[in-house]
Design goal:
Elements: E1 6-11, E2 14-19, H1 30-45, E3 51-56, E4 60-62, H2 67-71, E5 109-113, E6 116-118, H3 120-127, E7 130-134, E8 138-140, H4 154-162, H5 164-173, E9 177-178, H6 179-184, E10 190-192, H7 197-211, H8 214-226, H9 232-246, H10 250-261
Parallel strand pairs: 2-3, 3-5, 4-6, 5-7, 6-8, 7-10
Antiparallel strand pairs: 1-2, 8-9
Helix pairs in contact: 4-5, 8-9
């Protein structure tokens, strides 16, 4: 399928999604927003895909909402229900919203942050599961400098990732931080040389796809996404229930078998 604002490359078990508006620093417009959601929902339902990598073309990951759209943005756009649809009622409703839906995707989402990341671009990266960035990456919330507020749940997700003191600093000041500071505060997991950032993310995604059980990654992602809404006893009860199911799964049998036979696993995901 051809997309106007994206490039999608399927590499065995991995889908590589590249935002492709380099002349606009991959800023989000309505078309890109719609295409991103379509691609992620499609890849989630594709049984041959076990991990997704998201990156940007050119010198930016995503510079936020396209400024041309921001200038003409109607206040009612924020309440437009077309962005709030649920494609799977078995997933938590909190993760069905306009950008939070990354949390409802059952496959691990790895972002390769190749450059400037601001506003909505930062929000997209926060809702992903693993964040790598290049040494050239620069981050900013940007909202306060545009007369806006902490949009689309960033006031909830950002403190989870970097802690409250860092979160309020980044939101109130809208200051830019570089890759070194992002790593220090835990915003990203690793800083990679710019020329290697995408390859590193793809290699990591392939390792997840080939060396560990896709059933396990699917369930552990759901456990982690549910945990902010659970008590400890609820998290333990969920773990006990999922462990009971895991012990009866084909992937558990293969997990034991490949270890005993000292060979590469052949997980089926069931």
């Amino acid at each position: 399928m051809q997309y106007e604002t994206l490039e999608v490359d399927l590499q065995q078990y991995v889908a590589v999604v590249k935002m492709n508006r380099p002349d606009r620093m991959n800023a989000l417009n309505e078309t890109m927003e719609s295409e991103l959601r379509l691609v992620f929902e499609t890849m989630d339902k594709n049984e041959s895909i076990r991990a997704i990598v998201l990156t940007g073309e050119g010198r930016a990951f995503c510079a936020g909402m396209d400024i041309d759209q921001v200038a003409d943005l109607a206040p009612d756009d924020i309440r437009d229900q077309k962005w709030m649809r649920s494609y799977d009622m078995n997933r938590r409703s909190d993760y069905q919203a306009r950008y939070a839906y990354f949390g409802a995707i059952s496959k691990p989402i790895i972002v390769a942050i190749n450059g400037a990341t601001a506003g909505l671009g930062l929000i997209l990266s926060l809702y992903a599961d693993v964040r790598f960035c290049s040494e050239n990456a620069v981050f900013s919330t940007a909202f306060a400098k545009r007369g806006l507020i902490a949009e689309h749940g960033i006031a909830w997700i950002l403190p989870q990732v970097v802690g409250y003191p860092n979160a309020i600093d980044l939101l109130l000041s809208s200051r830019k931080i570089d890759s070194a500071e992002a790593l220090k505060m835990g915003l990203v997991s690793k800083v990679i040389p710019a020329k290697d950032i995408l390859e590193h993310a793809i290699t990591y995604a392939k390792e997840l796809s080939e060396l560990v059980s896709p059933r396990s990654t699917r369930i552990m992602k759901r456990q982690l996404r549910e945990s902010p809404f659970q008590t400890l006893s609820e998290a333990i009860a969920m773990a006990n229930d999922e462990m009971w199911k895991s012990l009866q799964s084909e992937d558990f049998k293969e997990g034991v078998k490949h270890f005993v036979e000292k060979r590469k696993p052949q997980f089926s995901g069931v």
